[in-house]
Amino acid sequence: MSIIENEGGLDAVLDVAAEAVSGRASDIVSDDVAQLAAGGDEKPAPKTGVQVIVRAARILRSLEDQPQGLSLGDIAARVDLPRSTVQRIVTSLAEEQFLIAATPKSRVKLGPALIRLARATNNEIDQIAHPFMAGLCRELNETIDLSVIQGRSAVFVDQLVGSHRLRAVSAIGEQFPLHSTACGKALLSTLDEDKLEQYLSQGLAAYTEHTITDKAVLEAQIEEARARGYTEDREEYTEGVCAIGVSFVDPLGRPFAISIPVPTHRYDRNKARFEAALLNCRDKIVETLGNTI
Length: 293
Hints:
- This protein has 293 residues and is an alpha+beta fold.
- It folds into two domains: 10-120, Arc Repressor Mutant, subunit A (Orthogonal Bundle); 125-289, 2-Layer Sandwich (Beta-Lactamase), CATH 3.30.450.40.
- 47% of the residues lie in helices and 16% in strands.
- The chain has helices at residues 10-19, 25-37, 50-62, 72-79, 83-95, 112-120, 125-140, 182-188, 193-200, 215-228, 264-289, and strands at 99-101, 108-110, 144-150, 153-160, 175-177, 231-234, 241-249, 255-263.
- The strands form two sheets. The chain has a six-stranded antiparallel beta sheet with strand order 5-4-3-8-7-6. It has a two-stranded antiparallel sheet with strand order 1-2.
- Helix 3 (50-62) packs across helix 4 (72-79) and helix 3 crosses helix 5 (83-95).
- It is elongated and about 65 Å long.
């Protein structure tokens, strides 16, 4: 499944977006020089225009997680620049659709051109996650799976096979129920309450005697997973196989899960080790994406 990656996360997209104003750098530099000559307290920007790009990136980043937008004054305070400088850069970014009006008056927010840039990076999450998963596989000698949501199922999109003679292995592209697998429950934990309720309200089929079919019990498990950072499958889909899973969300908001399926006899005595290594792997991937969980 192709998913967009921002090398270094949203920062890279914002840096690219900021370069769109570099063509106007000389004008802004000239304005800054004029402002200094008029008694302004800001030093003129380097004539290379690099500082203008940096300023534009800072302005864009200041609008992350601000769906209602910010006023020019708010942005100026956040990036520690004069309002007049912010206004000139914001005008340039708006002309390129990197910013759009958030209100009829003065607020602005991130614009659609950023999404187009993100999609243009054209890298796949499985390619980014794969080296970290490979390292985890070597560390634990266990099978490592990467999965996504597809309808009411978790689908494997990448897999590293463990080296133990007795191991759990499934095919890439194979589908699994969300409520009875570690990867599936990890994916469910990323959903908002409305989407989670929509899934749970359609019934929970039993696959083994250990499958959780009680909606309230599963909701409690998912809430616990959100707090502790991982999910478990204790023979809930396949007798004799347990698993532990974690989730992360890419910069475009798409959920992924990494899981370790293990024969039951090996799972219990190694669970603490699996948990620590898996959480560490997830954190490294998230850091590489420049994203937050």
